[in-house]
Write a structure and sequence with these properties.
Elements (H helix, E strand, L loop, with lengths): L6 E3 L3 H24 L18 H20 L1 H7 L1 H12 L3 H16 L12 H26 L6 H31 L14 E3 H7 L1 H10 L4 E2 L9
Antiparallel strand pairs: 1-2, 1-3
Helix pairs in contact: 1-2, 1-3, 6-7, 8-9
The chain binds protoporphyrin IX containing FE.
Length: about 240
Amino acid sequence: MARASGSIKKFSRVQVVFHWVYGGSWIILALTGLTFLWRGDPTEPAVGLGPLLQGSVGQTLRLVHRIAAIGLMTSPLIWFLGDPKSVWPDLKELFSFGKRDLKYMLVAPLYYTTGRGQLPPQGKFNGGHKVNFYVVFTTYFTFIGSGLVMWLGRGTVSDGAFHVAQLIHSLSFFLGSGLFLLHVYLTAIHPFTRRSLSSMVNGWMELQYARLDHSEWVEREIRNGTAQIRGVEGAAEAR
Ligand code: HEM
């Protein structure tokens, strides 16, 4: 099918860099963290991946986990310091969840699996993006809080507190991992939505796709004169 040319700027370069620093750190943390869950009974000989967690390999994985944790913890500074003007408008939209978003969440499962139903017009972020953001936002703090207790509190906090931290860390991991897989599937594989990926690579989204999935946002940007559109006759070429 021929596609109308033209694209609209959705994210700044700084936001794209922030997204990938956060995502890259998260993937390293998930892969190294997964190996920590493979703890056999300490009274039995280690099996499977167990021996890897002892000795220098285990020490290296723990060090890599801590370095990636620093990357994840500090990554929001890239956005806050690099592109402060976009912080408030984007966070304001992400934190407002209205009837339209609820309807989106109710219709989306059927729509994305069978193509039936009609999604309501969406803003810059659809209901699914918002729910994904709420989980990322919440687990950012639960990971940091529980991770720092395990990192700095060993021997200082009580065994009970240490185990609670481990439990919170593991629950955040399972919740976050499920959503991470869905996020990758929808943005890189699903035929209806994979065209959104370019906006997190170079900041630009196909105008035709944006009009379909973010019509309310596109109309608003055009109305306010803030839309950056390129590749369409008559539109001012933007950076
Ligand atoms: C960003 C702040 C984070 C800090 C400070 C942190 C720190 C830690 C520390 C100190 C441990 C204990 C490792 C050991 O046995 O020496 C740990 C375990 C673990 N981490 Fe993290 N981590 C963070 C984020 C993450 C993220 C984002 C994930 C996954 C996506 C993750 C997954 C895990 C898992 C699965 C474990 C094993 C939990 C358990 O022992 O029950 N961590 N983390």
